[in-house]
Write a structure and sequence with these properties.
mainly alpha, DNA-binding, homodimer
Chain lengths: 232, 232
DNA sequence: GCTCGAGTTGATTCCAGAATCAACCGAGCC
DNA sequence: GGCTCGGTTGATTCTGGAATCAACTCGAGC
């Protein structure tokens, strides 16, 4: 309580590294086994650390997993904020947000996988609410879109919130294609995907052209009777 | 083994109903608590049935959960296939696929929630591979897009697989907006969303207009250094 | 009415794996 | 050298909840 402060060599840097190692290991195991399959023992082994030490650094399993998510997400969020403020035009901003997402995936696919697999899953009771984190980006992006709308860079009759949702949806699924291995992860395919996502979205959303598609809108076709549960 | 066949009154219809009830209860609990929070005891209680009975109808927890997913997904898949074959033009088909998705949500939001929260979030090890199921729709949609491409209804330089991924991504996230409560679930908002998703996607993907956006493509901006794990 | 067996029950068993904790370092300090 | 004290260890304990199973219910057939 009155030791480091100045001298010595490591003002707690060592512990910091340990913590990192554990987090990193958690990401690894997590991305392999998923939330429920992620055992503390595995994390400890992966990190090359004793079982008990995990509990020295983290209150419990939930806090650990939460930290994994938190760390990844807050980092991503920061990047998105930065990117969204960078370009001058709407197009540029959208472009750089997409860039951030793909770049993240390039650098650390495992971490992105964890985020992708876990975002959206919010067992309302358990752990922290990922929904909240998620809501945050959507909120953020909405602002971007609202502004664009004011500047006439976005169709005025679109709901910004929904635009935001679709935007990240397109990005997420695009990446999911890679995460799941539908598309092999090569620099050229990645680049093409990044480009395609940006282009498609911008084209889809800009007030430029309207390809008349006015069919029987107002009361969509809809199909027949849905309902779940069938089989036996 | 030699009883029903013809006479009597119920050739096992009773059991069928029980099974249904349990499945239905599972969907309920599942959508409330998520995969890992879904306890057999809860399902049994929800179904108004004894704990043990669940095991009479299902081998084990995994099989139950798998059935939940399977039932929902196969139903959805069938609808999509049907919808994709319905319209004559590409636009109409896309429109009706979107319609199927939204209609499903209207009818059974709980079930859709389960699918949305669970599709793609597959702990590669655990349970069945949702990835496979997921791959299936993507595959399916790809065909639709490939055909459209041959007919010049879709930009020729786009990857159909990626288009498919983006397509479902946009739909999924659009619905997620409702599932998570960002947008309140009213008929008008739903309708508007459905419309917007369709329109945006079609506009984004059709060869009609190209809003030049050629910036420094080929080497995307990218931001700075990524990497996960920070905080302390 | 009695028998048989499928459907049904819930207390009991069993175990994976989370969380605990007492003992064990090893580096500074007297 | 002895002492302190935080980081570190892993065997031990504890627990939630999955899976089992012996007993009960009830309708159909004799």
């Amino acid at each position: 309580m009155a030791k480091d402060s100045s001298a010595a060599k490591a003002p707690g840097k060592r512990e910091e590294e340990r913590r990192r190692a554990i987090l990193r290991a958690a990401i690894e195991v997590f991305s392999r086994k998923g939330y429920q399959g992620c055992r503390i023992a595995d994390v400890a082994k992966e990190a090359g650390v004793a079982y008990g030490l995990v509990y020295h650094y983290f209150q419990n399993k939930d806090e650990l997993l939460e930290s994994v998510f938190e760390a990844g997400w807050s980092w991503f969020l920061a990047r998105v904020i930065e990117a969204a403020g960078k370009g001058n035009t709407f197009d540029e901003r959208v472009e750089s947000v997409v860039g951030v997402a793909f770049e993240s995936y390039r650098r650390d696919p495992k971490a992105v996988k964890v985020l992708i697999l876990e975002v959206g899953r919010s067992p309302s009771g358990g752990a922290v609410n990922r929904g909240k984190a998620f809501a945050h980006v959507i909120q953020l992006a909405s602002q971007l879109f609202e502004e664009a709308q004011r500047n006439g860079e976005l169709k005025p009759d679109h709901d910004p919130k929904l635009c935001a949702a679709m935007f990240f949806g397109a990005i997420e699924m695009g990446l999911t294609g890679f995460v799941m291995g539908f598309i092999d992860r090569r620099e050229d395919t990645l680049l093409a995907a990044q480009r395609q996502v940006t282009e498609t979205f911008l084209r889809g959303v800009s007030p430029g052209t309207q390809r008349t598609l006015e069919a029987a809108w107002t009361s969509p076709k809809s199909s027949s009777k849905p309902k779940l549960a069938k089989r036996a």
